[in-house]
Fold this sequence. Notes:
- The structure holds two protein chains of two kinds.
- Chain A is mostly helical.
- Chain A is built from eight helices and no strands.
- Chain A has one domain (63-214): Cytochrome c oxidase, subunit III, four-helix bundle (Four Helix Bundle (Hemerythrin (Met), subunit A)), CATH 1.20.120.80.
- In chain A, helix 3 runs antiparallel to helix 7 (144-177), helix 5 (76-101) runs antiparallel to helix 8 and helix 6 (105-135) runs antiparallel to helix 7 (144-177).
- Chain A is elongated.
- Mean pLDDT of chain A is 89; it is low at 1-12.
- By secondary structure, chain B is mainly alpha-helical.
- Chain B has two domains: 1-72, no CATH class; 77-120.
- Chain B is 76% helix and 0% strand.
- Chain B contains five helices and no strands.
- Chain B starts with 9 loop residues before the first helix and ends with a helix.
Amino acid sequence: MSAATVTDTTGSPAGEDRDIFLLIDEHDHPEGASTMLGFWIYLMSDCLIFAMLFATYGVLGTSYAGGPGPKQLFELPLVALNTSMLLLSSITYGFAMLAMTDGKQRATQAWLAVTGLFGLAFLCIEMYEFTGLIREGHGPWSSAFLSSFFTLVGTHGLHVTFGLVWLVTLMVQVQWKGLIPANRRRLMCLSLFWHFLDVIWIGVFTFVYLMGMLR
Amino acid sequence: MSAHIDTHGAHDEESHGSRKGYLIGFGLAVVLTVIPFWLVMTLPLSTQATALLIMAFAAVQMVVHMIYFLHMNRRAEGGWSIMALLFTLVIVGIALSGSLWVMYHMNSNMMPTQQVQDQG
């Protein structure tokens, strides 16, 4: 089959036309045109990491090694407070994006700062929960359930931490350069990242905390 | 809407969403979060029914976040975003259900003491 096509192209004068056609087809891609899709695909791969951690927790989540289970360890009011912090940070980031669309730099920065504070509150509450568990001797080493719990929730917390670092970096960038196209693009990537973390948290509070209390 | 400097802003405008969209999404998310917490904290239903309900609420809330916060639709990035998402969901579904299914059977077949207790 390949031999036939070779004789076709070399035998007919259409071969030259094809060369010209290929040259014309080479068009310019504007800078950053594929960034959003690329970042989305990164998020999907991140989604796979969390899926594996959820699967691990699903398998090991009932292996208490004679120690306490979710009912004795988790405090739902604290988790509810944490959930509300993350949800509020999601809507304030949305407002930052709206301010960015309107070209209002000061409003964008203000909403980003509010988002950062909510994110920081989320992290502080999570650290309070983790240190409380560890201080009472229920660290990740004490059972397979706690190992998988700390890995799953800790990985989410680590993502939020890096999201915060990124947020502060972008606030500095916007302060220096303004809402230039590159900064708008970066803010949109962080928007996807931040809202994505909130989607993962829905899975965490449902499958880890709420389902844990039902066991 | 101020004048835009960027050259490829055509799809950007739409993907930011609107104030109304964010508020609708936030309202729905709050309702879909509060109900599962209330169900588990007060336990008005049986454990099984509660578990099924909160899983359903989580699934719906994830879709709400996808639509109103992540602005997912069939047209974003020429349809490639939704294709990547669907592909990921298939992989996640296979990995999750496969792991839980296989490990559940491993557990029940390889722990003789537990099996004796279950049968007795």
